[in-house]
Specification:
- This is Widely conserved NADPH oxidoreductase containing flavin mononucleotide (FMN).
- It comes from Komagataella phaffii (strain GS115 / ATCC 20864) (Yeast).
- Keywords: Flavoprotein, FMN, NADP, Oxidoreductase.
- 31% of the residues lie in helices and 13% in strands.
- By secondary structure, the protein is an alpha/beta fold.
- The chain has a single domain, classed as Aldolase class I (TIM Barrel, Alpha-Beta Barrel).
- Strand 3, helix 2 and strand 4 form a beta-alpha-beta unit.
- Helix 2 (69-77) packs parallel to helix 3, helix 4 (183-202) runs parallel beside helix 7 and helix 8 (280-292) crosses helix 9 (319-330).
- The two termini are 13 Å apart.
């Protein structure tokens, strides 16, 4: 038996936290019959204890892009055995924020604040990554709990006259018209993604997810619905994906060789019936290219470029269908994550085993139920390890971990 406090310390933080005898979220006993949901997943230099991840979810709670104790408590509450946690959308520069209360990682103060969150995660043997983003023409909005897609004026701490985009096309009628980016400004943005990738490594994040979905800047370049450029960044498919490829190359250049990079895409603009929209066929072509550029996992979502207040039929595949199609297309060449309407462990395991994807990401389910991983384990009848600070209260399962 261990009696020394020094021996009990994880040694992974600047303060005392208990050493975990096993990764939280891992099955007590891994066998051939263990459901895929609770099997490990290796991605370059990290290994997930299970296939359940926390999806990025904006909380609009930062000041000047700096994380606060609220973020520390919020993300700490989510460290309950998920295979990975992906931090909410984090801006690469001040104008790249969606709202005035978004996180950033473009200043040293921001890096230091986020380092406290990664330190806590690592002290609990949790893996945590960051989603790097630029909002483009969808910046300077109000937090969604104040207004659904409402533009923020200067009085609301917004920057409506400083929005940038591939083309001078507003997201919707009552939004400001963004400034069309110059070639020099595009080059600067690529470099800023690189700087923030280096900052992310410094802050201790275990991986980076590049946000190229939901109608934000990179997605705006991809879709000819929002990109009307006539230079090397517009027109053809090859030109419209150029900005994304330059960002990927820059990020891969500045992070260690064994460092994982995820990519979130909107597989479609949710309107296959609109000629100019980004379509499933475009995504199938894109994933072949980005996998060769060093992307390890495709995080599949949908929509965002086309504003539809009353969308009705989506004229497109669902998020889960899209993930299944992408995985079938790439096979073992890369990993695929699925999102969208996953509410139980049996359903999550079916997405993995029957639909073939590698990881399920959940958002709002974790907000309501931080114990989701444990709940899903009960659903598929797997005994898992939770942190010793909590797990001791639930014998005999905890005590069977010899």
């Amino acid at each position: 038996m261990v009696y020394s406090i020094k021996e009990l310390d994880s040694g992974k933080a600047s303060y005392f936290t208990h050493k975990q005898p096993q990764k939280p979220g891992s099955p007590l006993k891994l066998t051939r019959d263990t459901p895929k949901l609770f099997t490990p997943l290796k991605i370059r230099n990290i290994e997930l204890p299970n296939r359940i991840g926390v999806s990025p979810m904006c909380t609009y709670s930062a000041k000047d892009g700096v994380a606060t104790p609220w973020h520390f408590a919020h993300y700490g509450s989510l460290m309950r055995g998920a295979g990975v946690i992906i931090l909410e959308s984090t801006a690469i520069n001040e104008g790249g924020r969606t709202t005035a209360n978004d996180l950033g990682i473009y200043t040293q103060e921001q890096v230091e604040a986020l380092s406290k969150i990664t330190e806590l995660a690592h002290s609990q043997d949790s893996l945590i990554g960051i989603q790097l983003d630029h909002a483009g023409r969808n910046g300077s909005t109000l937090p969604l709990f104040y207004s659904l897609l409402g533009s923020a004026t200067k009085d609301d701490d917004g920057w409506p006259n400083k929005l940038v985009a591939p083309s001078a096309i507003p997201f919707k009628e009552d939004f400001p018209v963004p400034k069309e980016l110059t070639l020099k400004e595009i080059e600067e943005l690529v470099n800023q993604f690189g700087v923030c990738a280096k900052n992310s490594v410094e802050a201790g994040f275990d991986f980076i997810e590049i946000h190229a979905a939901h109608g934000f800047l990179i997605h705006e370049f991809l879709s000819s619905y929002s990109n009307k450029r006539t230079d090397k960044y517009g027109g053809s498919f090859e030109n419209r994906i150029r900005f994304l490829l330059e960002v990927i190359d820059k990020v891969r250049q500045v992070v260690p060789d064994d460092y994982p990079i995820f990519l979130r895409i909107s597989v479609t603009d949710s309107r296959e019936d609109i000629v100019e929209s980004w379509k499933l066929a475009d995504s199938l072509k894109l994933v072949d290219i980005v996998l060769d550029r060093g992307i390890d996992l495709i995080d599949c979502s949908n929509g965002g470029v086309i504003f539809e207040p009353n969308p009705g039929p989506t004229h497109s595949v669902s998020q889960r269908e899209a993930a299944m199609i992408i995985k079938k297309h790439i096979g073992n060449r890369g990993l695929v994550a699925s999102v969208g309407g996953i509410y139980s462990g049996t359903e999550a395991n079916s997405v993995l085993e029957d639909e073939g994807v590698d990881l399920v990401l959940l958002g709002s389910r974790f907000l309501r139920h931080p114990t989701t991983v444990w709940d899903f384990a009960d659903d598929v009848e797997v005994d898992i390890f939770d942190s010793i600070q909590r797990g001791w209260a639930f014998p005999p399962k905890f005590l069977t971990n010899d």
